[in-house]
Structure formats: structure tokens, C-alpha cells
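Run: sequence + NAP -> complex structure.
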Amino acid sequence: MSSRPVAVITGASRGLGFLLARELADRGHDLVVNARSEDGLAISAAELQGRGVSEVLAVPGDVSVEADARRLVAAACERFGRIDVLVANAGIIQVGPASAMRVPDYADAMNVMFWGVLHPTLAALPVMRELGGGRILVVTSVGGKLPAPHLLPYTAAKHAAVGFAEGLQVEAGRYGVTVTTAVPGLMRTGSPRNAFFTGDRVAEHRWFTLADSIPLLSMDAERAAAKLVRATLRGRPEVVLTPAAKIAVRLHGLAPATTLRLLAAANRLLPADETPRPVQPGHAVAPPGRWFDTLTGLTRRAAQRYHQHDDSAAPR
Ligand SMILES: NC(=O)c1ccc[n+]([C@@H]2O[C@H](COP(=O)([O-])OP(=O)(O)OC[C@H]3O[C@@H](n4cnc5c(N)ncnc54)[C@H](OP(=O)(O)O)[C@@H]3O)[C@@H](O)[C@H]2O)c1
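>> structure
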């Protein structure tokens, strides 16, 4: 059995998952990293290994498929003999009005962000129990606490993930496992490059990427990763990130009808085109021009630094 703690991280080929893995490595963990894209995962795993502190095992696979999730946990046990931390981070995001979303969009969101949390968690729990305990971090979203306009499949799936993570936290403590529900607002992970857009794809891509680039609204992703890992290792039940998300979650808890009315008003400012076009990843949407590049410099730099390769698996 490895003498060092071992962390399994899903969705670690880029963005926040890559940064959470890096943070855990810097805190002395060996790593088992996962994502669907073998090439993308290999690039991130090589950088993590290159830091020279941890052993890194890359296990490509789709966590929404139970057999893949079991294989991920089995590979960790076979190589290291233990799992101390599980980070259920893998996610996708589809942006567009509810009327442009189709049933498969909801299925895709639920598959990754509900089943893709549940399968690795259920596979890892008996291992942690046998070892006397462990830490689980479930990365949800402010969209799992209140609705985010033009993100309905995401909102529904993240609400399911919040319910699962909070429910498990209540029950797993008695056998030494803590579950931390991460509820981040916007973080600059560079994700608009691999987010999926429907309806008026250019306009949806524009507002989403601009919001992602506003420093007061979105948070530096490295700081976010550090805070999430610290909270997880301390066994905190919940961590809400970004001041805007904290205000929104509190207000929604106190006055849900008011937040829903405010969000409905915000929704009227978003693009009106409801045509259900096939979703397109951000890197394939034509950028509107130089002014846009200038305003979204922070997001583009994050995409370069956090391995946002143009490898998002095509949805249905
Ligand atoms: N960025 C934000 O502002 C923000 C805000 C709140 C919450 N979050 C949440 O934070 C998490 C990470 O976000 P991010 O911005 O870093 O996203 P990202 O850059 O798009 O990264 C998503 C990761 O998940 C992997 N993935 C997707 N589907 C998968 C599947 N079925 N099985 C295994 N891996 C899968 C992706 O790799 P492959 O495509 O190769 O599988 C990739 O490594 C997500 O859960 C997201 O919802 C993000």
C-alpha cells in the first residue's frame, strides 16, 4: 500500500479538475486522474507528473458509465492500495434558452453531473470505509442551488448533484467519510472554449464568455482550487465560492420568490432566438471580433494555462 495519501479526480484533463489535481499533488497526494479524452488527459497527466512530487496514474473513461467508474476505482486500488480523497468534478455545460433544449441535452447533463457523481462515489465508498474514512468533494455549482437562466439542463443536473452530495454527507459521517459540496459561482477555468451553445450560438457564446471574464463576477480558478482542496481536507460540509454566488444563495434561501422574479428579469436581457440548433462547442463558434478578444483576455489566458484543448466530446 502507498505510504502517501491517494486522490482520484474525475474531469482532470483541463480546467478546474486539472487545478484540483495539481493542488492535491502539491499537498503530498499521489493522483489517479480521469477524463474521456485520452489525448487531453495525457497532456495534463504529463504536466502533473513533471512537478515531480507525486505518482500520477491516468485512467481514461466516461464516469457516467458505471463500468468505467468502477474501473477507475479498481485501477486506483490496484496501483496504490488506497483512496483517501475522491473529487467528483467532471461536468459539461450547455448554454441556450430552455425552448431550444431537447430531451437528449437533459440526458447528457444528468449523465455526467448526476450519474457521473454517483457511480464513482458508490464505487469508492466501500474502499474508504474499509480504510476507516475518506474525503469526498462533489463539485456542483451555484446553478445547483438556484436556477441560472439559459442553463436549464445544467441547473437540473446540478440540483440533483447537490441533493445527492448533501444527503450522503448526512449519512456517511458515521463511518468516517466526509462529503464536501462545492457550490462555485463563475470561475475562470477557460471553460467557454469547451462549453456547448444552442439557439443563437454566437450571441449565447458572447454573453457567457463576457460574464466569465468579468473579474468581480468570476473568480481566479487557481484560488478556487486551493480553497476547495482546503475545505475538503478539513471535511467541511459546504463551500460556496465567489461573493456573487454567496449573496445569491443566501437571498434565494431567504426570499425564493424574489430571486426567481429577479432571474426572470435577467432572462429577458438574454438572446431571444429559440431555434433548437445542434449544440456547438465554444471553440467552433466564430468570435465576434477584436473588441471581444480584448474584453475576454482573462478567459483566453485561463484556457491556455489550464489545458482547454479543443477536445470536447461531441454531444448527440
Ligand atoms: N467554470 C465555471 O465557472 C464553473 C462554475 C461552477 C461550477 N463549475 C463546475 O466545475 C467543474 C469543472 O468545470 P470546468 O470549468 O473546469 O469545466 P471544463 O473545463 O469543461 O472541464 C470539464 C472536465 O470534465 C471532463 N468530463 C466531461 N464529461 C465527462 C465524463 N462523462 N466522464 C469523465 N470526464 C468527463 C472533461 O474532459 P473530457 O471532455 O475529455 O471528458 C474535462 O476534463 C464542472 O463540474 C462544472 O460544472 C464550473
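>> summary
The domain at 6-305 is CATH 3.40.50.720 (Rossmann fold). The mean pLDDT is 95.
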